[in-house]
Amino acid sequence: MKTVNIYLNFEGTTEAAFNFYKSVFGGEFMGGIMRYKDFPPSEDMPPLSEAEKNLVGHVSLPLGKQILMGTDIVESLCNGHKTVMGNNVLLTLETDSIEETETLFGKLSEGGQPLMPPAETFWAEKFGSCTDKFGVHWQLNYTGSKAPEQM
Predict the structure, then answer these.
(1) Run means of pLDDT, 10 residues per run, the chain, 151 residues
(2) Domain-ending residue, one of 77, 104, 127
(3) What are the DSSP calls for 100-134, one per residue?
(4) FRET partner for 151 with CA separation of 20 to 30 A, picked from 10, 110, 111, 125?
(5) What is the C-alpha separation between 22 and 34, in angstroms, rounded?
(6) 77, 42 in Cβ contact below 8 A?
(7) For the chain, how many structural domains are there in total?
(8) Which residues belong to the signal peptide in this entry (predicted)?
């Protein structure tokens, strides 16, 4: 496996969430924000309301070598699938420094809920976890000198 990419489902808040993540991590959306109205016509696609057509069908934001992707779930397109926000997604970021861990934790937890403020653990020089203001759970980990020795 070369990379692990993360896909997040929202109920109408994808654009706000991804603009927030862009402000935290920087970068640009790959190909912009694609809305359902931008999808090519398909006989398999049920008719959508005007509101559903303006929802985010797909967005991608590079995070280093990985890509954070997301969509607004439309039940009629997903066989009645309903999004359950919160503990269904847990994202772990291995940071480059203690300072980066603390900075990202501060930005991600703003308006959300700090679960474990950044602190030293037995596995990391600095580890913290929080839930952001969109209900997504994040773990920030700087292993540093506590990285297991390579065999």
Answers:
(1) 75 95 97 92 84 94 92 80 70 92 96 94 91 90 80 34
(2) 77
(3) HHHHHHHHHHTTSEEEEEEE--SS-SEEEEEE-TT
(4) 125
(5) 16
(6) no
(7) 2
(8) none
